[in-house]
Amino acid sequence: MIQDIAPHKLDNQYYMGVAPEDDDVLLVFDGKKVLCNTENGLHLPMVSEFAGIPQDDAKRDALLTYLFAIDEKHFFMADKDALALPDGFTFQDVWRFRRDVASSQEDMFAIATGLHLSHWYQHNKYCGCCGSRTEHAKAERALFCKECGNMIYPRLVPAVIIAVTNGDSILVTKYGDRDLPFYALVAGFVEIGETLEECVQREVMEEVGLHVKNIRYYKSQPWGIVDDLLAGFWCEVDGDPTIHLDYQELKEGIWAKRGEVPLQPDNYSLTGEMMRMFNEGRA
Ligand SMILES: [Zn+2]
Hints:
- The protein is of the alpha+beta class.
- It folds into two domains: 10-123, Nucleoside Triphosphate Pyrophosphohydrolase (Alpha-Beta Complex); 157-279, Nucleoside Triphosphate Pyrophosphohydrolase (Alpha-Beta Complex).
- The chain contains four helices and 16 strands.
- Strand 9 (143-144) and strand 10 form a beta hairpin.
- The model has no long low-confidence stretch (mean pLDDT 93).
């Protein structure tokens, strides 16, 4: 999965006052697009490729935000309008990398994690209580409003991935609103006041009109591209297996036989891992 980058290691603790080195990475996002060069596979811009980064610590810290490290390499973020963009780099859709661009798993994980953090920073520039400008807390990853004392911590959105099985078949779907050519599993965001297991039952009923039983937790995955933390569950159809598709959410839903499951093209997603496990008889 995207987070399985061993022997590399993510250190996602926030450190104050890390000075960028020339070969550190500077992530710049424009919505869900990331600044990169894809002429020869995926290349993320290094600090040295940007002209005009101030030498003065205070001025530089105002432009660059420390995000995390993978091994010895630090990753920083800058607003897209804060610096002149280096030649040869353009903003490209993160989804595209899954099918069109050769990229290392640690770069993909860095982009997904950076994207999640950048959303959080962007959406919390101003205090939601009093509207004042926030600033970074000194000792931890948090934004602080000195006008009213509001502390804002990074926010994750919990969601479930659901493998519904029926004997030797698994339910696979295609989303209606996304340009993804491959099949996925039923999935959805957890509502306030709901358990993960209740979310599993509700989402399956809403999207494909099925009752499920024997709900078992499998594994989790950070999926920063949509700010969520995914929890994967196995369950079995309970009663009539006739699919009634919610065409608002999905354009296709089918029972795929073991050995014939239409698999995803990479190993990034928890969804893909669960589909592959079932297909190979390991679940
Ligand atoms: Zn405030």
